[in-house]
Amino acid sequence: MKLCYKFLFDSLYLILFLNNFYEAKRINVVKEITLNNSGLNLKYVSISNYSIRSEYASAPKYKINACYTGKSFSSMALGLFCYLFDDKNFLKHYKSANNKGANRHLCHRRNRNLLMTEVIKKYSNNNSTKFFNEWKNIYVVRNPISRFISGFIQICVLKIGLPSNHPYCFNCKRSMNCFLTKLYTRLLKFKGTHNIVDRFLSYHFHPQKWQCEYFKYKDKYKIIHYDSDKKQFYETYLGELRDSGVPEAKLTFIKKLFYTTKPIHKTDGKHITNMYKNYLLRNPKLLKLLLKIFYEDFEEFKFEIPNIEKLS
């Protein structure tokens, strides 16, 4: 009996040790850089060799896979990949569904996975070489300023689709300064996603470079920038689908969905969105906080870094 307890104790100790060791490897580091456009000395949060929980949607008929993050065309991507995966089911239900073509649940999780290895195992018999040779992997990224503002307006200001007392805004109410300060502090201590609050905040507000297992698969992704020129963005996306063999009739329908679908959590074009964005862009303190959080997104995905010196 003593040997049994000793074995259990030693096993638990080993598990805890390995878990702590693994978690310790996830801890972020603070890097320092001088921005060329302003001379600003910036200490920003960085992470390497780790990705937060990811979300993938696949269309095996056309060998297309997409990873998506919050506030970067995710609901629309889930809708269109459901259509490409099971068009009969989609066409039967989308008109009566909440969010119409951007409904996230029409295909449930039948074509969705949390890891790239799951996608490879399911559709390429666990042969990664075959998968990456034959499949296209799309990752839509958004300017960090627009992405943050969209998430903040939806979740903290208007609370669209959320209860008024939800836990996702650090009790900051409508204060961007409070929210960005606490988000930065949280990222400095980040050791993974362990509960629904962690996952929600990561999905909507953590840097895009930290998601979609980007550190592993950056060379395998087709990056599409989701920017203010929606017409150009839509044409680029449709071009990638066309290149993968999606028929013109389906592309015409998808294009119609792009222009006519209005998700309930959409924030673009709202007066309050423009008001908060303008306030952020004129506030050096807030912009510096935002850069400390999202600098790696600006740098990695070639978004223009705001010149804070001009505002000082």
UniProtKB/TrEMBL annotation:
Source taxon at top rank: Eukaryota
GO MF annotations, alphabetized: chondroitin 4-sulfotransferase activity
Signal peptide: 1-24
Cellular component terms per the entry's GO annotation: membrane
Pfam families: Sulfotransfer_2
Keywords assigned: Signal
A biological process from GO: chondroitin sulfate proteoglycan biosynthetic process
Name of this protein: Sulfotransfer_1 domain-containing protein
Taxonomic classification: Eukaryota, Metazoa, Ecdysozoa, Nematoda, Chromadorea
